[in-house]
User: Fold this.
Amino acid sequence: MKAFLTTILAIGCVVILITGNLHWKEKTSVIKPKAAETKSEAAITPVDSSSKDLELTANWPEESKEVFKKRLAEDKPFKIQIVGSGALGEGQTSWPEILKTELQKEFKNSALEVSVNSYDLNSLSYIKENMQQDIIDTKPDLVILEPFILNDNGAVSIEDSLANTKNIIEDVKNANPETTFIIQPAHPLYNSQFYPIQVQNLKEFAEENNIMYLDHWSAWPEQDNQELTEYLTSDNSQPSEKGHEVWAEYLVEYFIEK
Assistant:
């Protein structure tokens, strides 16, 4: 009997020891918080670097925005070509170069190419010499066109000037359907009479043909304000450095939405 009781007591001690050991392990085991895992994983999730560039295009024509997205997906450059008369100017202080610099600085996460083509021609000569082939060969995604409106003043009728502009656009789009056009006039002139009428007709032409028109004249002094002469060169053929800054600022604000 004594031996039996001793055996029972021994078994009981073993059970107590095992149970206690298991309980101790359960209390002292380390459990990794699920919240900490989620936070750690979120910290290393890469951010889509192209989203910033897409936000910058908010003001662009819808067609251009779609092609821009396509070029990002293809890892190909989105090509912008600035085309017009000598009114575009030249050198680092010209508005095309200022715009080019700002675009390439802001669109950091995508390849964006900007080229400038100016011609000392009016729209009729441009068409006769088939210079639109330069645009066709470059295959730009977006063309910012100053359609020789100032050079046409006194040399080409309004009707012919608009017809030439339409021909340029149609020739390019027939060859490159994805190319989109934006139209803008050259710089304003002080106390000009006929030229503003040409520009108003150009604006109406753009509206009728559903083409984006950039009315940068709204950023310049009024045409009857003598202060405007400070924004132009002495022969009125180009903007002065001050004029280029005004023109560039208007386009930068349009093309780069912040």
